[in-house]
Amino acid sequence: MNWEFIIKYLPLNRKAAWLTLRLGLLGIALSTLIGLFCAAVRYYRIPVLHPLVRVYIEISRNTPLLIQLFFIYYGLPKIGIPTDPASCGVAGLSFLGGSYMAEAFRSGLESVEAIQTESAYALGMSRFQTLRFIILPQAAAVSVPAFMANVIFLLKETSVFSAVSLMDLMFTAKDLIGLYYKTTERLFLLVAFYLVILLPVSLLGTVLERRLRYAGSGT
Question: What is the chain's mean pLDDT, rounded?
Fold first, then answer.
């Protein structure tokens, strides 16, 4: 193991890691908004939008992120829509993540028994109050494990960004391996930086799940 090489290229890897994390979090934030919207459409079965959302979810979940990135990066300019690697990565991650988040949130919403909603209406609560005080707290508790799993999944999927010439961790790793043939050192840095990014998220998810589980059991 050449530690001098590792220390020399730590700044470059920090820069690549920051880019990976920044674009990943932005994509996750947008996919969360898309997921909430799609989950609401499917839960309330809004006419016209409901079948469109189902088609989107099926297409998104059953095509690889790499193919989606290629379509955005190479296909959209053909119809006059300019793209760049960063916006392409965020758009692709949002498109993929939105469908997974939608299913996670929908499962949470549908876990709330109908009798609770009916009881809230019988007590005079409005639809908004029922959603805020009855449905969402219970749905959130059920959705958190799937949501955190999706966050980790999407952060790992950022490794595909290198396919559209984005200077992320994976692109930097392949570039340095090609230049210096330091495969062991470079893969060590790659694993180390992904652990730095993903391990805190995993621990946070564990803490949230535990707290929600205790809150649900009254302990």
Answer: 88
